[in-house]
Amino acid sequence: MGLDIDGNTALVTASSSGLGKASAAALAREGVNVVINGRDEERLAAAAAEVRAEATGAVETVAADITDPDAVTGLVEATVERFGGLDHLVTSAGGPPGRRFFETTDREWYDAFDLLVMSVVRLVREAGPHLRADGGGTVVTVTSCVAKEANPSNVLSSAVRMSVLGLEKSLSTELAPDVRVNALLPHLHDTPRIDQLVSQGLDLEARRAGLPMGRIGRPEEFGEVVAFLCSPRSSFVNGVALPHDGGAMSSTL
Predict the structure, then answer these.
(1) Mean model confidence pLDDT for the chain
(2) Burial class (CB within 10 angstroms; exposed 0-12, middle 13-18, buried 19+) of 247
(3) Superfamily of domain 9-234 in the CATH hierarchy
């Protein structure tokens, strides 16, 4: 079953590595013209080379800091200028530092909100008119399972990412029917983030053994779900916060 998004244009933020890159790669394999984004030019160039190796759509890079309002404006404008429009926005961002509540400073709270929430606010504000044009488009916000099941050792993500889910749900009504807005909530995946968590004390083998699927997620699996949510095949899926966790979460809502 094809996804019927060949020739579309997508902007994927924080896509020089990890789940952002996997999302861009999945879209590019489906023939979507993709702009990948990050702050480091060298990492972006390396990521673009990997994505192009399997892409059937064009792949461009735009370096920008998504916590900078002017940079966000320039990022969206550059995407539209290069491809003549914008059909899909995938908002990904790096995670804030893992902290418990009493270890966390006011500055870290503000920085986490700017990175995780205000980046989405600004990106959708800039991209919205383009997404609404030519029959409408999609937004997929990449958050985390901690938005539904809080982790006390990661209070910033646990608290702040819930705001992204509230924003996603509000936008799914305000932008409908032209633009569908959904959220994806990843659990553990085989990305560079795992190495960071292991260095901070995560017992990966113990966690893997306790997961229903007996393994952590593969980035390409995540990317394929992003591509599906961007496609007409999910045309009645709107306002959903979908865990991509292999059944790891125990919450029913």
Answers:
(1) 94
(2) exposed
(3) NAD(P)-binding Rossmann-like Domain (3.40.50.720)
